[in-house]
Amino acid sequence: MSRSTESQIIEGLVVAGAGGDRDAQQELLERYWPLIRQVVRARRQRLGRELREREGTDDLEQEVAIELLESLPKQEWRGQEAFVAWIRRVADCQVIDRQRFHRRAKRDRRAETSDERADQAPRHRRSMESQLDDSRRTHQLLEQIASLKSEYGAALLLHYQGYSHAQIGETLDCSAEAARKLVARARAKLTKA
Questions:
Q1: Can you list the alpha helix ranges (DSSP code H) found in the chain?
Q2: Domain check: are 138 and 76 in the same one?
């Protein structure tokens, strides 16, 4: 299937999904669920332990899916690459919004603890430029991972999130050795790119 044909199919699904066609919406979600999962897991991991303790990956993925479907009617088709970038932005923003929700004073777990040492711990803040550089590097890495075959991308993301080869194998329904090879091949492909 040529790239233009694939783009036309996606455009048709976007238009139909924006018009309320449930089958088109379902197919869009199925096609882009691995991307949603990658972005959610990577962003959730970067945002730290507090968010990971309060929000499960599955819940965040579902919130992203709901937000995508609600925003789809406002989405203007500008090509497949722009559509993928929009999905990434929506997923990224949704996870960040959930972190902000939990960080508000009423929900801040640090405020809920009786441990006074948490307030006494020095907080090191990085410069805005460093944070932007990290964000750009992460975005570039996610783009590179998204360009890999889905099993390579999934194995590599799980590896970077600290999963063992056995856990990756269990998640991807393969042996630990196969998972190790997937991670190694994914790294090799990224270094060639």
A1: 3-18, 22-46, 49-54, 57-71, 80-103, 109-112, 117-120, 128-147, 150-160, 165-172, 176-192
A2: no
